[in-house]
Amino acid sequence: MGLKQTSQKTTSQECAAKVMETVPLVMRAIRADMRAQGSTTLSVPQFRTLAFLDRNPGASLSHLAEHLGVTRATASATIERLVQRAYVHRNDHPQERRRIVLKLTEAGNHHLQQAREQTRTRIADLLKHLSEEQILQIEEGLILLKEVFEATLKEREMDESDSPHIL
Length: 167
Hints:
It is built from 6 helices and 2 strands; from the N terminus they run H-H-H-H-E-E-H-H. It has helices at about 10-35, 45-55, 60-70, 70-85, 105-125, 130-160, and strands spanning about 90, 100-105. A two-stranded antiparallel sheet has the order 1-2. Strand 1 and strand 2 form a beta hairpin. The termini are far apart.
């Protein structure tokens, strides 16, 4: 499977179209693979929840729901399943009575690491037929893409924290 040479005239619009076409395809493949593993692993929303809590210990249910792009009720149901499996601690916030604080348990962290390793292994298997140069091209492109989106998210977070919130 060779990569065709891209023209120097590829526009950001064309690149954006390729990103929007490729990222959902990659996520569908990961989801299908996770579903094929059966009940011993996490659903994709549960995996994303554990990964979010790994990066954001003490996050609120609202922040989790926003990250997942779901309602608070849906996020709450996901958390409830993870609490029942002893993967997440759900505690009341010490200063805000109506807010809960979410953290991974040791078992949740262990399960997350196992799921990540299984997924990495399967993705590596998909990529193993590529040349070293092709793998390097993919890696460099993903690093650039990550940097662009991280910078964009940081800018948005700063804008949101500077703007007054209307209750």
